[in-house]
Amino acid sequence: MTDVLLIALFAFLGAAAAGLIGAAVLRLLRHRSLIVSLSVVAGVAVAAMLAGTLTVAWAMFLSPHDLYVVTTVVAMAALISLVTAVLLGRRVAAQSHELALATRSFGDGGTFAMPAGQPAAELAALARELAATSAKLDSSRERERALETSRRELVAWISHDLRTPLAGLRAMAEALEDGMAADSGRYLRQIRVEVERMNSMVGDLFELSRIQAGSLALAPARISLHDLVGDALAGADPLAREHGVRLVGDRIDEVPVEVDGKEMSRVLGNLLINAIRRTPPDGTVAVAAHRSDSGVVVSVTDGCGGIPEEDLPRVFDTGWRGSHARTPPAGAGLGLAIVRGIVEAHAGRTEVRNVQGGCCFSVTLPTA
User: Fold this and answer.
1) Residues 337, 317 contacting (CB under 8 angstroms)
2) What mean pLDDT is predicted for residues 187-207?
3) Which among 92, 203, 327, 339 has most CB atoms closer than 10 A?
4) Alpha helices in the chain (DSSP H)
5) For the Histidine kinase domain, which residue ranges apply (predicted)?
């Protein structure tokens, strides 16, 4: 038993010395190629075995012939190990190079393509993660392009929408100043209407800028959805009467919600105003609210005749409008973008779908 322990001790000391030297070499070569590192690892393994064997052989006083035989066997094993390590290192290095080239392509704005061949499991997992990241970057670039397009359209449209009333205001002011206005009271009333419309547009722009900057401060409180919808219907009723549209809100559940009452009233008001203006006279705008598995759902259904399928994904984009007309009451195309921003600030979501004779806008909010 003592001889076995001594043999184990001598073998451990010889292998440990080789291992320490190999660790130092690996640290010095840590920035070199993977082939070099694998070769060092294979060399350390063989050197540790050789050092332990030679130490034990020295302690056992083997004959020179036996020591030569042992050394030759270990040298052959070292040669095979080093060749195997170099081949493996070349294969892994080639796969890493292919992965680097594929990564560079999608980093420059392209799409990541999985390298050909069968890479090692770790490299294959890395390639899958890079492919998923590439898909997310493509989606992000697409959203960024869409946002940039909508910003440019918004600037152009807002410029047009502001220029028209300003030109009218200037003409009316000059007529009043020159005493050419036959009915000055009508001119003053029209000036007030145009100023109110411009003030509403500027208010929408300010609200949207706060939403997009993430500075919209909410003051949530527990309120009844029935009361919230009822107030919104009462506020939209004069506009509905003016357009000859009937408001229906008889499917409102008594559901409590934790929301900012002022901001959610703006959401419902924007949806109702949009629905009333798009619904022809003698049409109906219906409001419903109920609890579902995903939360509390509030829907506004109009009689606009539907939205083209290709436009449905853009409905809540900034500056989008259902027609290319830039005359009142088309608006600046900010109402639905504000709706989405406020709802998302409440951790909710907005959706739109076509229904029989019109479309249905729905807002889903978390339950209180």
Assistant:
1) yes
2) 79
3) 339
4) 2-28, 34-60, 64-107, 121-177, 184-213, 225-243, 261-278, 335-345
5) 157-368
Q: Is a pLDDT exceeding 70 seen at residue 73?
A: yes
Angle of helix 184-213 relative to helix 335-345, nearest 10 degrees, comes to 40
Tell me the C-alpha distance between 193 and 124, whole Å: 65
Contact between 169 and 197 (Cβ < 8 Å): no
The b/e string for 45-75 (b: 16+ C-beta within 10 A; e otherwise) is bbbbbbbbbbbbbeeeebeeeebeebeeebe
- Structure tokens belonging to residue 171: 């003409």
Residue 153 tokens, joined:
């359209």
**Residue 305 and residue 303: Cα distance in Å, rounded?**
6
Q: Residue 117 contacts by C-beta under 8 Å, 6 or more apart in sequence?
A: 95, 98
Residues 6 or more apart from 118 whose CB is under 8 A from it?
Answer: 124
Return the bridge partners of 340, or none. none
* pLDDT value of residue 285: 93
Whether 299 and 353 have beta carbons less than 8 Å apart is answered as no
DSSP state for residue 116 in the 8-state scheme: S
Question: H or E element: which one contains 354?
Answer: strand 349-355
Q: At what angle do helices 64-107 and 121-177 cross, to 10 degrees?
A: 20
Query: What is the C-alpha to C-alpha distance for residues 245 and 282, in angstroms, rounded to an integer?
Result: 5
Q: Which residue type sits at 93?
A: A
Q: What is the pTM of this model?
A: 0.56
Quote the pLDDT of residue 324.
44
Mean pLDDT calculated for residue range 52-76 = 69
Is the CB of residue 368 less than 8 Å from the CB of residue 260? no
| Residue type, position 161, single letter | D
Q: Which residue has the tokens 């200037």?
A: 170
Position 244 scores a pLDDT of: 92
pLDDT tens for residues 1-15? Answer: 565 666 566 566 666
Phi-psi bin for 32: left (phi > 0), alpha (psi -120 to 50), beta? beta
Crossing angle between the packed helical segments 261-278 and 335-345, to the nearest 10 degrees: 150
CA 51 vs CA 11, 71, 75, 115: distances in Å: 7, 10, 12, 42
Amino acid identity for residue 292 in this structure: S
Sign of CA dihedral 134, 135, 140, 144: positive
Average pLDDT score, the chain: 77
